[in-house]
Design brief:
The chain is of the alpha/beta class. It has one domain: 3-Layer(aba) Sandwich (Rossmann fold), CATH 3.40.50. A four-stranded parallel sheet has the order 2-1-4-7, sandwiched between helices. The structure holds iron/sulfur cluster. Iron/sulfur cluster binds next to helix 4 and helix 6. Keywords: 2Fe-2S, 4Fe-4S, Iron, Iron-sulfur, Metal-binding, Oxidoreductase, Repeat. This is NAD(P)-dependent iron-only hydrogenase catalytic subunit. One of its GO terms (molecular function) is 4 iron, 4 sulfur cluster binding.
């Protein structure tokens, strides 16, 4: 099946709103929706609001009015991604510094499916370098259909998981075979921010006049670290907040890492882990990513960790968002909105999310446990080799 994977929206996406409606009217199904961090910073634009207007509460309210049984937050799964990816990074870093020659650095973030597809085709000899952590969308699906289904006393097939994403590549990601069990995908339908706006309009919901509502629990609670996944530099900043405390055992006083923020396509920063200097690279846009990867391939990379996102600005500039027509000011306003939401959160480090702690104590055990590996980690394919065989 051919589906759109264009990260910038240059190709027309498939409209899956009919699949959502089909699920919502099926009385046999429990329909669960998750919303990605960047959606709340741009959805308002589809209803004439200023770029950078945060509409988190109205978005939740609209989704409840549309009839979803549970309205959850992908930010929860972003916190979970940090638990797994941050632990994996520290494990690799420690072994590397101890002289283990089998360990490779830098570790590369793996939450952007357009970027994952890119390296599978373009840098297949490096598929053992990215983190094995699934993206937040896919972690959410795996947890919803195991842990949460069990809490509801239902089978995984009784649940339909819908995602609202800023992204066209996420439609492709949830069709990858490794993200399904016996043909039942962990995430059944992915729609974009624009498709959600269409659903709201078609249901005659007056979005602007909606009251704010809260996400449902337990998969709706998130920290500021989960929120900043929506912008370039945010994934690595979230990882640093947790990795710092896990590594040093010390309380991190200031959680904002200004040196990791910005809008330049290629950025680098050194973060001090209590005497240990970590070199971090950040790229958004695949042309910029290629530059960093050529250095890694040539053995010239100075970095311990690299964050890569395919879209300009990261997910705030995703191909499924209201069109920004390359206007960087709009992206900057969305970015500010994301940082505002982070600053307003009571908890801003992923490992302090009480529902994440509960998930580990009740179900997963610990990060990188056997069950965590089974549900939350993945593997990559050498797509160059596959196309040669075909
Ligand atoms: Fe999708 Fe975000 Fe990657 Fe763009 S940067 S392709 S929106 S995951």
């Amino acid at each position: 099946q051919c589906v759109a994977v264009c990260p910038t929206g240059a190709l027309t996406e498939r409209d899956y709103t009919w699949k959502v409606i089909e699920a919502l009217v099926d009385p046999q199904k429990t329909v669960v929706v998750q919303t990605a961090p960047a959606v709340r910073a741009a959805l308002g634009e589809a209803f004439g609001m200023e770029p950078g207007t945060l509409v988190t509460g109205k978005m939740v309210s609209a989704l409840k009015k549309l009839g979803f049984d549970y309205v959850f937050d992908t930010d929860f799964a972003a916190d979970l991604t940090i638990m797994e990816e941050g632990t994996e990074f520290l494990d690799r870093l420690t072994r590397y510094l101890d002289g283990d020659k089998s360990v490779k650095l830098p570790i590369l973030t793996s939450c952007c499916p357009a970027w994952v597809k890119f390296f599978e085709h373009q840098f297949p000899e490096m598929i053992d370098i990215p983190s094995t952590a699934k993206s937040p969308q896919q972690m959410f699906g795996a947890i919803a259909k195991s842990y949460f289904a069990k809490k509801l006393n239902k089978k995984r097939e009784d649940l339909v998981v819908v995602s609202v994403m800023p992204c066209l590549a996420k439609k492709y990601e949830c069709t990858r075979e490794e993200f399904a069990i016996n043909g039942d995908a962990d995430v059944n339908v992915s729609i974009t921010t624009r498709e959600l706006a269409r659903l709201i309009r078609n249901a005659n919901i007056d979005f602007a006049s909606l009251d704010d509502e809260d996400f449902d629990q337990p998969l709706g609670e998130s920290t500021g670290a989960g929120v900043i996944f929506g912008t370039t530099g945010g994934v690595i900043e979230a990882a640093v907040r947790t990795a710092y405390e896990l590594h040093t055992g010390k309380h991190l006083e200031k959680v904002e890492f200004e040196e990791l923020r910005g809008m330049e396509g290629l950025r680098k920063a050194t973060v001090d882990f209590d005497g240990m200097k970590l070199n971090i690279g950040i790229a958004h846009g695949l042309g910029n990513a290629r530059k960093l990867l050529e250095d890694v391939r040539a053995g010239k990379s100075e970095f311990h960790a690299i964050e890569i996102m395919a879209c300009p600005g990261g997910c705030i500039g995703g191909g499924g968002q209201p069109y920004h027509h390359g206007n960087v000011d709009i992206l900057k306003k969305r970015q500010k909105a994301i940082y505002r939401e982070d600053a307003g959160k009571a908890i801003r480090k992923s490992h302090e999310n009480p529902f994440i702690q509960e998930l580990y104590s009740e179900f997963l055990g610990r990060p990188l446990s056997d069950l965590s590996h089974e549900l939350l980690h993945t593997h990559y394919f050498n797509r160059k080799k596959l196309s040669e065989i075909e």
